């Protein structure tokens, strides 16, 4: 049996189709496989990281800072036009989704809305 007919709640293969829904008699969970595919696609769209112009970023890309940014604990900030090489994408709760090293400043996190793909 394929994985699409396994119960997403308990993982049981003992499922059956009832009209448009699939039903698991073990845990009484009902689901629509088409809604699951749409939810997976929406999650994939949400996990993409895009720059200020809408270009998709990936690990190892080079980006250019588009705005002067202040850096806490430093008298100088990051100037617009600074090129950052070899970025790494990270999941962060505060919106900083790029990890990088900037010459003269060191390792830091950036928000993708303040960079463009180089």
From TrEMBL:
It comes from the Bacteria. Residues 6-32 form the Protein YjdM N-terminal domain. This is Phosphonoacetate hydrolase. Residues 49-118 form the Protein YjdM C-terminal domain. One of its GO terms (molecular function) is hydrolase activity. Keywords: Hydrolase. Belongs to the YjdM family. InterPro entries: YjdM, YjdM_C, YjdM_N.
């Amino acid at each position: 049996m394929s994985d699409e007919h396994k119960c997403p709640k308990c993982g049981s293969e003992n499922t059956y189709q009832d009209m448009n829904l699939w039903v698991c008699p073990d845990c009484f969970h009902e689901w629509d496989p088409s809604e699951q595919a749409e939810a997976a696609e929406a999650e994939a769209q949400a996990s993409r990281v895009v720059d200020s112009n809408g270009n998709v970023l990936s690990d190892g890309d080079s980006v250019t800072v588009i705005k002067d940014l202040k850096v806490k604990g430093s008298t100088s900030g990051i100037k617009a036009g600074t090129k950052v090489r070899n970025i790494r994408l990270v999941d962060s709760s505060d919106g900083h989704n790029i990890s990088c090293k900037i010459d003269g400043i060191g390792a830091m996190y950036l928000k993708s809305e303040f960079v463009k793909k180089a």
